[in-house]
């Protein structure tokens, strides 16, 4: 067992699968955009209640470490990069100058003198595997902090990442557990009440919907279809748009719209900061000319949507603080039920060291909105 970080991840069957408690592990979590982390930069993030240092060395190497020095608990992110005699770059703690390599091993303790025997490499901080994909940074959160295991799967890949870098990026922290944030995100019936803009729809504009769903990798998808006639915002794309909306564990939801050869991808990433706070990152890519002319208006609309959802989360918290039982109904809340089933199956498959079996069955859901 490595010195300095012997504390296991606080997870169990109960905390991983009970709604509104705990977090899934052995899975990739979105952390940041690649552009957020410049060479020579150290940045502190909080993911699943743990401090995570994401760093990019001056040479461009990306890495993740627990942002606590095992000596006196100072955050390593407040330190700096130091080049060793070997040429390797290490992170120097700002308190006493302990230095750590990208793999978490201690490289030097300046206060030691020559006749003080100590194998400093046995002192380690937890390493978080990180990968960049499509301009996004993902962090692998293992179930056991004591094991320096590599991920057994790649991070997710999304369709429609086109047109260079993102056209829009917006972030907001919701005062909610990721479970409530996810369920709110996929809820198909709240739109006419929470999002009542003239350019979108009103509470009076409700129609019966029937949408086909299929299981997808670690999630499910509302298969490609024409947008509802009362969803006015699609009109700015012109032509005959088709859309597909997909959800994937632990908290990734994307809408891929095609208009002929043009594409729009709207990706929403939910990252749990703590038990009671979730970061929402909304990213849009597109090669559609509408984003050249109407980008300020589209950005303002997306920002308004996100903040309306945030306001509703805060209002919902007034009731949730009494821990009431919640009633979920078919078909409007079927996606929420699927999410809970997916969580349980993911946790069980990892615990039992077997392949994940998607519990979602293909079918058509109907509701009014």
Automatic annotation (TrEMBL):
InterPro entries for this protein: Cholesterol_7-desaturase, Rieske_2Fe-2S, Rieske_2Fe-2S_sf, VanA_C_cat
Gene3D superfamilies linked: Naphthalene 1,2-dioxygenase Alpha Subunit, Chain A, domain 1 (3.90.380.10), Rieske [2Fe-2S] iron-sulphur domain (2.102.10.10)
UniProt GO molecular function: 2 iron, 2 sulfur cluster binding; dioxygenase activity; metal ion binding
Xref: Pfam families: Rieske (PF00355), VanA_C (PF19112)
Keywords: 2Fe-2S, Dioxygenase, Iron, Iron-sulfur, Metal-binding, Oxidoreductase
UniProt keyword Acetylation, yes or no: no
Domain Rieske: 29-139
Family annotation (PANTHER family): 3-KETOSTEROID-9-ALPHA-MONOOXYGENASE, OXYGENASE COMPONENT, IRON-SULFUR DOMAIN CONTAINING PROTEIN
Protein name: Aromatic ring-hydroxylating dioxygenase subunit alpha
Provenance organism: Phenylobacterium soli
